[in-house]
Design brief:
By secondary structure, the protein is α+β, with helices and mostly antiparallel strands. Helices cover 33% and strands 23% of the residues. The protein has 18 helices and 19 strands.
Length: 511
């Protein structure tokens, strides 16, 4: 994360002063249905850019926050949305047409779009900082005393941008980034008394990693696999699996060398990853070795929360994550809510983590990922895996549900209810991807949505809403959230979208 580390800490004190202002007026921020404010959306994925290359169409992920446009349903809200490349006008229109009860033209007049015209492999925030004239136009477009910024994740780059614009950032101080890493997460789990897999301390070279993995195997001789994780990897893309079966005959004193030799045969979760590249990142990002959790029936639940400026922890949602890749390590999508048998317990575990983070000074969004394995008695063994001290892949689907229905999450049941008191469910994905979808333009997708009635119906508050539409033509990749009045209905709506897209791209299309 070289570009992040190069951002000077000289802005730290000014940043904290801006956040004090934010803390003083945060209630007005929350009351966006009646408040009068300018919201600057910085949808930058300010993550390690070499790791980001593992994600196809990565810069199109800036579109995931377009659900924020639904905030324009408040006639006094102004939204400033910044992207690397211009947004297709039809994509913007799509979100504005989801607004209930607001004239399209009125909402459009309160939306200001800026872009850097730069599709390079840098974070969006860095691109903005490199363009002082663009920053000046943004500064002139907002009312400083009624403005705040939101971002995907908070790094020294976002801190610098906040200070240079003079606009407070509604996110954690970047000085707390460590608590969102693999090793930082494990430390918090220990402090909170949460169950988590046995694993190693953070290491910075291949030799220490081999020794750590050997020590883990020594402590846990029943292990079949070990997960090797880059400390600042994300979405499972920085994980690799070490199979211990081929090393089973090694004596304990020989294991470290044997493991080191076998690193070349790691099963990487990211497509195209190699040991040469993976090992080169260890001195930069750090790495840990962690026990692979085995189980015949295994799910990957997560809990999302936020910390408000008063220090109070709010639980926002729970999900069962949909994972893929060679060993089920890659995040593909999610189902809301998490399984009924453990969702309330999941909330309590997430709340403990949130309280710990709040005591450390964290602010705004956090998520905690778990693995749940069904035991012989029918109960679930829950193991905490990692903390995301940022927004994540479950943030935008839940934001879409909340803003489209104006409903509420009820912690006592772990369910979300519409204003009519009806529980809502959804299936969401960032990775509906097929080769045959390549070449579809946003206009084509809109035609397909309209012709097949796939759109979200505000009268029934069910249907599918789409994102990552800019990713479709080049990569054949699309995101969607299918909302229903039951989990089965949500699944059926999702499957209908896939079926229709498959049919419409079957190759026999003619005008």
């Amino acid at each position: 994360m070289q570009e992040l580390n190069n951002s000077s800490s000289e802005f730290a004190e000014e940043f904290r002063n801006l956040q004090k202002e934010l803390r003083e007026r945060w209630r007005a921020i929350e009351e966006f249905d009646s408040g009068d404010c300018d919201i600057i959306i910085i949808p930058s994925l300010s993550l390690d850019q070499q790791e980001m290359k593992k994600v196809e169409g990565a810069y199109h992920y800036e579109e995931r926050h377009l659900f924020s446009l639904i905030r324009l349903r408040n006639p006094r809200t102004r939204l400033i949305y910044i992207t690397s490349e211009p947004l297709h006008p039809m994509i913007v229109d799509y979100y504005l047409q989801l607004l209930p009860g607001i004239p399209f033209s009125h909402a459009r007049d309160r939306l200001l779009l800026f872009c850097t015209y730069d599709a390079s492999a840098k974070s969006l925030t860095q691109k903005i900082l490199e363009r002082p004239r663009l920053m000046e136009r943004i500064r002139q477009a907002v009312r400083p005393t009624k403005s705040y910024m939101v971002c995907y994740n908070s790094t020294p780059l976002e801190r610098e941008l906040s200070v240079k614009l003079g606009i407070p950032l509604w996110a954690s101080d970047p000085d707390l980034l460590y608590w969102g890493t693999k090793s930082g997460s494990r430390q918090i789990f220990k402090e909170c008394g949460l169950p988590y897999p046995d694993g190693s301390e953070l290491v910075w070279n291949v030799e220490d990693l081999a020794e750590s993995a050997a020590g883990l195997w020594e402590r846990q001789p029943h292990l079949k696999r070990i997960v090797i994780k880059l400390n600042e990897g994300f979405s499972g893309e920085g994980n690799a699996i070490l199979d211990l079966n081929s090393l089973a005959g090694k004596a304990p004193k020989e294991r470290a060398k044997a493991i080191g030799d076998s690193f070349h045969n790691l099963r990487f979760q990211a497509t195209g990853e190699t040991w040469e590249n993976f090992s080169s990142r260890i001195p930069e990002l750090g790495a840990i070795a962690e026990a692979f959790i085995e189980g015949e029936e295994k799910l990957s639940p997560s809990v999302q929360g936020r910390i408000v400026p008063s220090g109070e922890v709010e639980i926002l949602s729970t999900h069962d994550q949909i994972l893929g890749g060679p060993d089920g390590q890659i995040f593909l999508g999610c189902r809301f809510p998490a399984d009924e048998s453990y969702r309330l317990a999941l909330q309590e575990l997430g709340w403990k983590v949130g309280k710990n983070l709040a005591e450390k000074g964290a602010l705004e969004r956090f998520g905690v990922d778990f693995l749940a394995v069904r035991q012989s008695d029918g109960n679930w063994d829950m193991q905490a895996i990692e903390i995301n001290l940022r927004k994540g892949g479950t943030t935008h689907p839940f934001m879409a549900l909340k803003l489209l229905t104006n409903g509420r999450y009820e912690r006592s049941t772990g369910l979300f209810y519409s204003q009519q008191g009806r529980p809502k469910y959804y299936v969401a994905s960032d990775n509906l991807k097929k080769e045959r979808y390549r070449g579809l333009l946003p206009n084509d997708l809109m035609d397909i949505i309209a012709d097949n009635q796939l759109h979200f119906d505000t009268s029934t508050e069910t249907g599918s809403v789409f994102h990552l539409m800019g990713c479709l033509s080049e990569f054949g990749k699309l995101g969607l959230t299918s909302i229903g009045n039951s989990q089965q209905e949500a699944e059926e709506m999702y499957n209908k979208v896939v079926k229709v897209l498959d049919r419409e791209t079957s190759g026999d299309f003619t005008f």
